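PROTEIN–LIGAND DATA SHEET

This sheet pairs a single protein chain with one bound small molecule, zinc ion, given as SMILES. Inputs appear in the order they were entered. The predicted three-dimensional arrangement of chain and ligand is reported afterwards as a token string under its own label.
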Amino acid sequence: MKEKIESLRDELHKHNRKYYIEDAPVISDYEFDMLLKELESLESAHPEYADANSPSVRVGGGITKSFNTVQHHYSMLSLSNSYSLEEIQEWITRVQKKVPEATFVCELKYDGVAIGIRYENGVLTQAITRGDGTQGDDITVNVRTIRSIPLKLTGEFPKDFEIRGEIVMPHAAFKNLNNKRTAAGLSTFANPRNCASGTLKLQDSSEVASRGLDAYLYLVLPEGVISPSHRGAIFVAGTMGFKVPLKKNRFIEECESIDQIIDFISHWDAARKDLPFDIDGIVIKVDSYSAQQDLGFTAKSPRWAIAYKFKAERVSTFLNEVTYQVGRTGAITPVANLEPVWLGGTTVKRASLHNNDQIELLNLYLGDSVFVEKGGEIIPKVVGVDLDKRAADATEIRFIKECPECATTLVRKDGEAQHYCLNIESCPPQVSGRIEHYISRKAMDITGIGSETVQLFVEKGIISHPGDLYSLTFDQLIALEGFKKKSVQNILEGIVQSKEVPFERVLFGLGIRHVGATVAKKLAKYFGSMFALAEASIEDITAVDSIGEAIALEVHSYFRSEKNAVVLDALVVAGVQLEIVQTEQSRIESPITGAKIVVSGVFERFSRNELKDTIEKYGGQNVGSISGKTTYVVAGEGIGPSKMNKAESLGVSILSEQDFIELLNL
Ligand SMILES: [Zn+2]
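PREDICTION REPORTED AS:
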């Protein structure tokens, strides 16, 4: 019986592949359904032979109450992108300067939901959403229902690897679903991407199965596991049964020159309207993995890839008024208030004008007929003025001189485009903005308090900085108009719970300029505690891997302000997490525990990122540049002579890759 079930499964896997991936079915839908029914009835009669990757899981059936958050094996970075061909050209020049022999691969930029799928011994074991790039949601049950994603591989494959790609909602499936929802009196989805991401988060996998999602897979990890080049890896992945972009329909193309790349871009800029799914640009990658390694990463994205985004839709409308917003850092952002206009699926009433330079560049007058565009960003942009339609008596827009909230004279620092209100202490939107940032989801995640509540508390004078939250009392809040017992309890409970939030998010929550979530994580990991960071010199801070001087200056000066000291003291008293809690794993003692290590050059056994991960795993710290405090330099092929000289002159020990391996007994 077991063999019978297995052979049915194999046959169905094969027909599924023929139909959904190779687009060349050999049996009719009816015959396929009959085979599937037979399998289902055998499986229900013999539950002892159950298999999570049986073709019968394609129809769904499992209910997931909530999706677990899990760590990515390899962080999922987003690509830097550009709307300008000139910038693409500059990027190519930069790449070629560093790696003259580099060639490129152009692919479609699918407008869907990014996914990482792991396979072990040839079967699908886990599928994770991008999430924040380091951890995402485990949506394996739902992904198994997508028929163009193989549950079982064919041919030869590595024992354990990950493939990444994008899950898309094809236009036909999208229309079909929205029609059904309209008929059922349900709300419709705004666009296929929203629909795909909403669908993947459904609790009922049989509903997911019915919606007709599709997927394109285009990145195999770890790099080099099946081919030394990106293009090669995609080709090999195709032989394992994955639906990969094919050269024959020009979904992927190898390019050696900027002309070839531009040709690929212009082809798809015109042809994309005929595709059965949405794309929003073209991705260009350096083909060889060793060249990719040489180019490396910035804090946010790889240097070996860039996305060209297609120009967005453009409409014209009238400018009614310019108003000014004050951010939590005191930055003033001018906002165009527009005659409402339909653009890219929504009604647009406001558009960002960024700063005074932008207003002057556009040469804006009140009542102008303006062109508005919506790109990848949520807030649309004013991109031009129709001068022919300007009224003779129109008045020019003049940037305000005083803060619209507190009337302080605005200042524009040398070299900065933004005007600032420097009344940091008592300008209301700055005070409440800092607290709103502190309680936001990515920071302390204090639920129960919304923006309006924060503004009210600030207005009433009961809080003026994040530290004040911890001294709020029940009696104080219940006395406020409109506050019921239940909501006051929720607020206070949320505040108490925030004391468990890890240090890196507390640091992010302080809202230090340039310190986003990623930088906060790096600083927290490196310094270990708020006290160590507060005492660090600018040089100490720039020693952290990929932390530059601009960030270091802001961090350093933050801890030297008396006003900030008041906030920090309050946080100490409140008992929030001001240091990293050591996990079991990071307590492993090794010869490099606590060592500050610089990695440079190219290695045989490790990619540079793997090497850095290994260092962290064994308790070492990755450091960006060599200084007197550096413990080791791990030197690979092609390390620059200036680095070697510096290490030698400072007496820093230099390890070869082999030395490193022996030191740790790897
Ligand atoms: Zn102000």
